[in-house]
Structures are given as C-alpha cells and as structure tokens.
Predict the structure.
Amino acid sequence: MMPPSPIRKLVPFAEAAKKRGTKVYHLNIGQPDIETPEMALEAVRRFDRKVLEYSHSAGNESYRRKLVQYYHKSGIEVSHEQIIITTGGSEAIQFGFMACLDAGDEVIIPEPFYANYNGFAVAAGVIVKPIPSHIEDGFALPPISAFEAAITPRTKAIVICNPNNPTGYLYSAAEMETLKNIILRYNLFLFADEAYREFCYSGTHASAMHLQGVDDHIILMDTISKRYSACGGRIGALVTKNKAVLDAAMKFAQARLSPPSFAQILGEAAVDLPDDYFEATKAEYKRRRDTIVKRLNAMDGVFCPNPGGAFYAMARLPIDDADRFCQWLLESFEHQGKTVMLAPATGFYSTPGSGKNEVRLAYVLNVADINAAMDCLDAALNIYPGRTTTGA
Amino acid sequence: MMPPSPIRKLVPFAEAAKKRGTKVYHLNIGQPDIETPEMALEAVRRFDRKVLEYSHSAGNESYRRKLVQYYHKSGIEVSHEQIIITTGGSEAIQFGFMACLDAGDEVIIPEPFYANYNGFAVAAGVIVKPIPSHIEDGFALPPISAFEAAITPRTKAIVICNPNNPTGYLYSAAEMETLKNIILRYNLFLFADEAYREFCYSGTHASAMHLQGVDDHIILMDTISKRYSACGGRIGALVTKNKAVLDAAMKFAQARLSPPSFAQILGEAAVDLPDDYFEATKAEYKRRRDTIVKRLNAMDGVFCPNPGGAFYAMARLPIDDADRFCQWLLESFEHQGKTVMLAPATGFYSTPGSGKNEVRLAYVLNVADINAAMDCLDAALNIYPGRTTTGA
C-alpha cells in the first residue's frame, strides 16, 4: 500500500481554510520563499530554439559537463558519464532503488526519515527496516550495533539524508566513516541524499562521495530544488561511479524518455553563480533556524533540538496526536485570522506509534512570518483540546 | 528485468556515427521537427515569478481548468478534478498502472505496442499478455475471441494506443464499442493512450472517453509532447472519472511532489491556440506519411501498410534481423555521407521472435529529409549482408 505523503495529505484542509479567508503559514513543506537566482531564470527566458525537443535520457551533455565543475567545487570528483539528470531528486531516489534493489530486498534507514523514501520503496517492492534515532540527542546517527542488529541476508543498502530531512541533523565526518565501515563489512550500497549540501550551519559537509575506497557502493541522490530555490523545475541527479548501476538506471531513464528541458537550462546556468552565492542564503536560513528553535523551546512543554543543517526542525509538542493536531490547526483554529500548517512527524517514522507528539517545521519563510507562525502555534497549544500536561 | 528501450538503445551507435562525420536521419524516435507554437514558448519566456515553486501535485489548477476546455472541444467532458497533470505521458502510464494494478496482475495489449508499456509494467510487477495484430491487415484490432482467449482471473485491464504507436493504426468507433463490451463483460480497466489524438488522416478520432456507461473503467493517458511538438516539456495527464483511481494516483503524484512548472505554463497557453491550429500540422504529417509509405512500398521486398493516424509506419523489410540491421545502418553503412536510424520492431513485440523483419519509422522529418532517408534505406537494403531473398 502506497502511504499518503505526510507533507501533502493535509493540503485539502489548508485549501478549505484559505477559502474561509484564513491566512495559512506553510511550514509543512520545504518550499523556500528565497528567490530563484535571476540569472538562472533569465537563461530560461532566453530559450531561442524553435522546437522543444526531448533531451538525452541522461540529460543534456552540456549540463552534465557543467555539473562536473559544480561537484568539483564540493570536493566530489566525477565525470559527466557518471551523472544521470533526473526529474527532481524524487526520480533519483526512484532510479537508485530500482537499479540497485529487487523486490523483497531490505534497506536500513535511520528514522525519522524523508517520508517519500517509504513511498518509493513500496513502489519498488523494497522493505524498509527503520532503526531509531532520538530527539533527545538531536537525532544523531544510531550506534553501529543498531545497524548490525537490523542487518539480514536480504539487506542491500543503507539510506541517509545529510544534512537530514526531517531532523536537520548534520552527519559528522566520523559518522560517515562509521557508515563506510558498515557498508564495506556487509557489502551494502549507501544511498546518500544530499539535497541540502549547501546548508550546513554547524560544521562542514561530509559527502558520501568523499569516502575513499567505496566508489562502487555510493549512490548520490541530488536535486537543484533547494540549492537554487527551484523546486518547480523538477531537476535532480543520480551520481555514481558504479558502472552496472549507471547502466541499469539508464534503462529506467530511457523508459521515461528525458528529464524536463527548461529546468535543465536553469540548472546549467546556475552553476556559473558566483562562489559566494550561497553565503547570503545560508546566513538567512541560519537566522530563521535560530528564531524558530528559540521560539519553540520557549513554549511550555515544547522541545526542539538545534538542527545543524538543511532547513527543517523537529519539535516535540505537548499534544495527544500530531496528525489530529495538524488537521485541527487547519480545520478548527485561527489566531487573528491566521494559522500554521505543519507536517505530523508520524509520517516520517515507519515504526507505528512513533513520532505521535512530534512535528516537522520547515523554516522556509522569512523571520517575520516565522514569528507570526510561532504566535499561532503558541496560541494553538494553549487551547488545543488534546493538549497533554507534560509534553512527554 | 527492465528491458532496454528499442527507440533509444542504439543511441550510442548513432553518436559514434555522428562523431565520424556521418549525417544521421532520425526516424527512430517520435521527435517531430514541427515548431513548438511560438505563443506557447512566449508564455514561458514571460515567466515573471520570483520563486520557481512546486506546483500542486495534480498540477496547477488554472492549467487543469484550461484542459477541461481543451477536452470539451474533443467531445470529452471532464472536470478539472478528474485530471492529474503528469511528467510526460510516461508518468501517466506509470501512475495508471500503479494505481489500478497489483503485482502479479495481467494486462492484455495488442502487439506490437509502445515498448515502454512493457518497461512500466515490469516496474509495477505487472504481467503483459500480448495478443497479436498483423501487418497484413494493417494491425487492426484483434478479434474478440483473441481477447477472450487471453483473459484469466488475474486479467485487470486492456491497454490500447489510439491512433497507435508503433503501427499508426486508427481504431474505428465500432472497434472501440467492441472493446467496451469486453471491459464491461469481464470488469476490466481500459487504459487508452491518446497521445496522437489530433493526428488522424483517415477518419475521425474515437476516444475511449466517448464510450457511454463505462466511466469507472476508462483511464485516459495523455501528453502534450506530440500535440504541440513539445516533447522536452515533459507534461502529460492522467484523466479518469474513477474516484478511487484518482485517489490512488494522487498518492504517487504527491510522492514525486509536482510536475514541471515551466512546461505547465506552456501547456496552459497552448490551449488558446486557434481552432484550426492542427490543420496545417495534420496536412504536413499526411504529406510525410504519403511520401514514406509510397517510397517504402516501391522498394523491392518491402511492405508497409498505410497508417491512419499518429506519425509512425511499420514496415516489413527483406532482412534477417531488424536489431542487427538497424545497428549495421549506424555502424557499417553510409550513403553519400548519410545514414538512417530506425527502431527495430522486435522491441515493440513481447512475443519472442516476433517482428524480426520489421522496423518502425517515425515520419517526423520534412519530406526532403524523408526522401533522403529513404534513399539511404534503399541503398542499404541493396548491400546489407543479411538481406533475405523474399522479404517474407
């Protein structure tokens, strides 16, 4: 059974609230309000071909060659033949799973995790074995013993997202080495979703592609959606040095013909942004993180660990049921004509019952809006009928 | 096992031929040289939003409402809530299969058929049961007895493409009624791929959505790729009145977040093209069809039935093996510095051994180029080492 998206399943309730005239602050989805770089949009506006043709199934060669430069700047050395342009990061996940895994295979994912891994695993007939990470220690990588306890003869891969969605946790280089040892010892793939590579606030990014001696094990799943605030473009990439995986993924790429043309132009142009382009964006996200974490922890019964990267925070709230609460926020609550949309954390856990009093907040709005959204949340927690005393 | 695309698997050989300086006429892929409507491209160039945001997972509501008008002109009455915008027609096929079928279910498809149905069926764990249509009678709908002989308790659907890719066959209203009777009697879905709806040269288009009393059975799979010569946009649609299928498909739509934004703008603008827009395009394709069919049938040992729609022709050639021949055309042959790329028909049959002396030709090039490509083919058949005497 395909599970509904925790990020989007409440959309009809948000639409109804807006129709009633309520302002909804969207902290449910990683849709930044950061402007898409004007020079990249301008490249699309300058499109002067007469025919909007299919591109190569792996994406335009000129774009893949440009991406080689981009990755080089991040200390990732690949050739353009090791890159398949995908329709968003979503398709990179899909291709990765389908190219590397058979129905019945198992993948280990520290939970909570990006809910759509589950969806794509279900679609590929793959079984997700979650191992818990905990809000108390900021969702750090689980100990090696937890991985080993979950490994069976059907285990084929570990999936990580770094920096993490939904937790914001930034894996250290030491933790990446730990993962390297596990995948080598048990001959596993490491799927690394690095959609938020540029957004690290505490420390630098340790890419899975930096790991030495495990080239054939690493499948990088990437996207320009967050990097350039270009979510609607639907352009991502599957990057690997494993030739067999590339060959298998290309069959899926050919079946869907080609990735979208316009946004490939945008992505190619964006590689030429100045080297300091990300500084301002990162500073802005850091301000937002500091604001939202401070506001959340100041609320009675609320706990939010400080995320090291990406633009998500997980918070534990004094509520009976996050799904009920998030729906209630949209259906039955408003504060001065406004409310806030959050993602119930239950959808990010695959262990039933986990995350029932947690929510994910995407700090994709400006500081003023985040403060207004936090005002709503604070007021809501005071009157929510399902409030628990302790928040535990 | 995911089969390689018959349309694209020879691409590396074509690339090598081009590097050697050989001009390659691409009749292998349905990539028209017709210009994308300027007003639709212009709509994209006028994009003036600051942020390239995710759209609704079902696509922009404004676009879906516009499509209601488009379908109305084709005698198809649907609401915008019965339309899910997809990433190309490919994704409409994918969503349709995944929403309606379980692993182990069977679908009946008259063969030869669009090869990627096979790929998406494999990805969904669905078993394709081909029933033969024949080049001798122009690939008409197989008799009802052939369908009934293929039906088992696991049969869930029939898939048709009308007008047909790869055969160009245009199903008559009477044949569509035959299909209606079968799906009603056996409670099946009818997946109707109508990507080439506008391109009918002999008779008018009988849409599956015109059938009365089978609303819950019909899944329309559509695309703007051919309609507006906008293959690179990657915009299609899944259309159905079956609420349960829509709900299931929406989960897959949400998992991949949203369809590409830029090309939705293009598709929305294109609905406002004048009503006679397709006349010129259709006349041009008809000229090409007439040219290619005449040239093919004039070659010794070649037989090509006259296709009623789409822009494909299937031809039987006096050759030992279409895969070998098509590769040889790219690897070992040239005629005055030129060669032609064709799609071996074997990849459009799922019955092993079928189509070994057939190829698909997409008449997507102008008449002069088609004639030059036919000159190459004619010359090639004269010297191909695997030529058979009779062509039978």
Notes: Chain A touches chain B through 61 residues (CB under 8 Å). Residues 91 and 256 of chain A are 10 Å apart (CA to CA). Residues 277-298 of chain A form the longest helix (22 residues).
